Amino acid sequence: MEHSELLQEMQQIEKLPINERVKLAQKRRKQQLTAYAKWAKTDNINNRQRSKNIREVAFAPEVQLMDIAARGSHEDMRNLLKSGIDPNMRNHDGLTALHQACIDGSLELVTLLLKHGADVNITDQDLWTPLHAAATCGHFKIVTTLIKAGANLTAINCDGEMPHDITDDEVTFQYMENEMMKRGITQDIIERIREEPHDVMLRDIKNTVLTGGDLNQPLERKSTFLHAAIANGFNDIVKLLIDNGASLTARDEDGWEPIHAASYWCNEAAIDLLTHDKRVNLQTCTGYGETPYDLCDDPEIKSVILHKISIMSDMCELYGEASPENLTPIFEEVERTTIDDSNEKHFQDININSLESFYSEPQKKLDLFIVTDESLDGSRNPSIDDTPSSPIVNIEAIELSSDRRNSIKEAKHKAELIRSIDRLSTKEKKNIKSDTKSKQTDDPRSVCNKENITPNINPLFITSTTVED
Question: Where is region (Disordered) located (predicted)?
Answer without folding.
Answer: 428-455
